[in-house]
């Protein structure tokens, strides 16, 4: 079985407008909050009770904006943040988004 190939923008192709657009959705914000630990996560762990097509849409939006890395591992789709790239390009933005998302979860 051939591993799935995913397109990721190069660091030079990542723009603040696309990153903020990808992070403007509450579902994707929750995904980022879950990815904040820096580990690879199976895409199925990133959102509760979403149809697979909706989950795929949201993970694609994050990947195409340059927010995440995605790789196939057997039947799993593993995703992690592009923290180093985003911190270098837009210092403090990702940390602020993660902190805000965590605060919203705590406030209910």
Please write the CATH class name. Mainly Alpha
Average pLDDT reading: 90
Work out the strand percent. 5-15%
Regions with pLDDT < 50 over 5+ consecutive residues? Answer: none
The major sheet is characterized as:
3 strands, antiparallel
Explain the overall architecture:
This protein is α+β, with helices and mostly antiparallel strands. Helix content is 49%, strand content 13%. It contains five helices and three strands. It has helices spanning 16-22, 26-35, 52-65, 83-89, 93-107, and strands spanning 41-42, 68-73, 76-81. It has a three-stranded antiparallel sheet with strand order 1-3-2. Helix 2 (26-35) crosses helix 5 (93-107). It starts with 15 loop residues before the first helix and ends with a helix. Residues 8-101 form the HTH arsR-type domain.
How is the topology of this model organized?
Elements: H1 16-22, H2 26-35, E1 41-42, H3 52-65, E2 68-73, E3 76-81, H4 83-89, H5 93-107
Labels describing this entry:
108 residues; alpha+beta; Arc Repressor Mutant, subunit A; three-stranded antiparallel β-sheet; 49% helix
Entry summary:
This is Helix-turn-helix domain protein. Helices cover 49% and strands 13% of the residues. The chain has 108 residues and is α+β, with helices and mostly antiparallel strands.
């Amino acid at each position: 079985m051939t591993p799935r190939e995913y397109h990721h923008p190069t660091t030079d192709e990542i723009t603040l407008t696309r990153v903020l657009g990808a992070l403007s959705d509450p579902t994707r914000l929750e995904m980022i909050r879950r990815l904040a630990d820096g580990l690879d996560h199976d895409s199925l762990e990133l959102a509760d009770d979403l149809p697979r097509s909706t989950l795929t849409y949201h993970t694609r939006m994050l990947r195409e904006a340059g927010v995440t890395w995605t790789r196939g591992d057997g039947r799993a789709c593993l995703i992690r943040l592009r923290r180093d790239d985003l911190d270098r390009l837009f210092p403090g933005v990702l940390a602020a988004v993660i902190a805000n998302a965590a605060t919203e979860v705590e406030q209910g």
